[in-house]
Amino acid sequence: MPDTRIRQRGFTLIELVAVIVVLGIVAAIAVPRFINFFEGAINANMVQIAANYKAGVDQVNAKWLAAGSPGPKLNFIPLPAAQAGGDLSVNANGWPADTRGVSLTLNSGNDCLDVWRAVLSPGAPSVSLTLGAADFHTQYLGANSCRYRNEKDLTKHIEFNSNTGIVVTNL
């Protein structure tokens, strides 16, 4: 008489353990690569923002040079009120100083905000004097210099020296 019992089919314990081991190895390789991918994306974004900032600063200086290097000038470049809140003033070297018409040198956190908003196009990452309130947190460093720290990673920042026009990215 034929055997009428139904055989159960399934995975053995050894097969399940082998699959779990393989998945663990794949995860151990993939997770660090994913973390490095995220870090690389932040770095690439920082470099791009710094390049745009430097291009804006250089454009202001080129306009000042084309005007005959007229020295420090209040309200040198007219700006839309929505962009920066006032016209851009430049210092004695032709580098951006503020947009409130009060200073011919970059000498405060508010001046750092002014320059960021004036040299970057509308839609650029936001900036604030308050930590955690925007994409970037700005600090006045003294000696006519600003630091813009990335809120996603505060060790990454962009620095601007308005004495020389140098923009440095620290990754």
UniProtKB/TrEMBL annotation:
What parts of the sequence cross the membrane? 12-35
InterPro entries linked: N_methyl_site, Pilin-like
One Pfam family from the UniProt entry? N_methyl
| Record's keyword terms, sorted | Membrane, Transmembrane, Transmembrane helix
UniProt xrefs under NCBIfam families: IV_pilin_GFxxxE
Instruction: Specify the protein name.
Output: Pilin
Source organism per UniProt: Simiduia agarivorans (strain DSM 21679 / JCM 13881 / BCRC 17597 / SA1)
Q: Cite the source lineage.
A: Bacteria, Pseudomonadati, Pseudomonadota, Gammaproteobacteria, Cellvibrionales
